[in-house]
Amino acid sequence: MAHVTSGIVRAAIDVMEAHLETTLSIPQIAERPGTSQRQLSRFFRKYVQKTPVEYYLAIRPDRARGLVTQTELKLSKIVAASGFNSQVHFSRAYHQRFGLSASVDRIEGRVPFKFRAWPMYKPDLKREGAGSRSASR
Questions:
Q1: Is residue 54 a part of any domain in this protein?
Q2: Each residue's pLDDT expressed in tens, for the chain with a length of 137 residues
Q3: Which one in 7, 63, 111, 131 has a CA-CA gap of 20 to 30 Å to 17?
Q4: In this structure, what DSSP letter does residue 82 have?
Q5: Together in a domain, 85 and 137
């Protein structure tokens, strides 16, 4: 977001973040800070460089990633808590946004970041080793 943000945009973002599980329409979101849908769209384009709909859709995978990597919740619960209507839609959006599946991210995302840079940290070392043993037999 830009350094200077409209109070209306900030209020709308707060409403969006509070209503991921039960999604609101953009007119309902615009109502909360007391503006029109058109004015809200103008402010979003000016300060966020996205439409309100684009922004609302983009924050769902981010919420999901936090839940995937920081909690033990079942993926079905995370799907609902992030505002996705189906596991398939969630999986596609998650992979498109982060480049890996939620189940892989759950495992790899729990390794502290500083350790991921270490040469000896190889998440697929077991897979490589298992493949080379079976190939040599």
A1: no
A2: 444 468 999 999 999 999 988 889 999 999 999 999 999 999 999 999 999 999 999 999 999 999 999 899 999 999 999 999 999 999 999 999 999 999 999 988 765 555 545 554 455 544 444 444 444 44
A3: 111
A4: T
A5: yes
